[in-house]
Amino acid sequence: MTKIVAVVNPKACNGRVGKNWPVYAKTILARFGTVSFMHSAMPGEITTLVRRAIHEGAQRIIVVGGDGTMNEAVNGFFEHNRLINPDAALAPWPAGTGGDFARTIGLSDTDISHGYDHATERMIDVGKASFANTAGQQTSRYFLNIASLGSSAHVACKVNASSKLLGGRLSFYLGSLRGLMAYRNQPVSLNIDGRTEDMVVNTVAIANARYFGGGMMIAPNASLDDGMLDIVVIGNVGVFTFLKDAALVYKGQHLAQHYVRHFRGRTVEVTSLGNSIPMEFDGEPIGELPVRYEILPEAIRLYAPIIKAI
Description:
The chain is α+β, with helices and mostly antiparallel strands. It has helices at residues 16-19, 21-32, 45-55, 67-76, 100-104, 112-115, 151-161, 168-182, 239-251; strands at residues 4-8, 36-39, 60-65, 78-79, 82-83, 89-94, 119-132, 138-143, 146-150, 186-192, 195-201, 203-207, 229-234, 260-265, 267-272, 278-281, 284-288, 291-305. The chain has 2 domains: 4-96, Probable inorganic polyphosphate/atp-NAD kinase, domain 1 (Rossmann fold); 129-297, Tumour Suppressor Smad4 (Sandwich), CATH 2.60.200. Helix content is 27%, strand content 36%.
């Protein structure tokens, strides 16, 4: 019998998960049967709880929360730069503000329980970033969805500091406006698979999946199982261009714009050539440049619905 543990972020979706937990629990139990529950009590604890569950023999980890919760969870599957148990599977139960990873795996705008009617396990890629933390120590962090730097990370700070009561898309849109008006584009050195180019950027998105920022399809060609990172560079533009072209980004039709560049690669190194530049992982601000990203092909087992293109 498969041992299933649900790791829950009660603070997700502006605290709605905790307030409505009996409803969530009833639905999860009806879908998965016997489930043990672990609830986080503080930021960052999801990683610890997932790691503990895997060490205690959990074979399927249901993660209840948003994109930031998923990011904490995927880091719990690894320890000492190694996967703890290759047979343990991540089962997302989206319950956050942005819901960007859920869009890629077919669990957005649908009844989640019914979405699992056609679920299967498969191996997917994971992104890994190496950088110095605030204490100056070299560290690594994994991400399922998208890591980015520049104004997007500045926006993430603004959104996370807000109440998010307006919902995902509007909260991120208003946060984008506030962040873009305050942010100044910066020069960087971008190295992709050994090829280096200097440029002035607003945002650089390092994508394993397609969406970020509450529904923006920033990387429409990204796939979870192609062994590659999609790198989307938004160049030296400002808030007025964002306003004019916002609809294109939500539809994934922005790659043809003159200020957008798209690359694919297995490793990406980014260094600031000017002021400090913030970074974020799956919507969570985490530090500043320099950073090295890499793709880990088929690095984690995902239990989720089958969709035509992941």
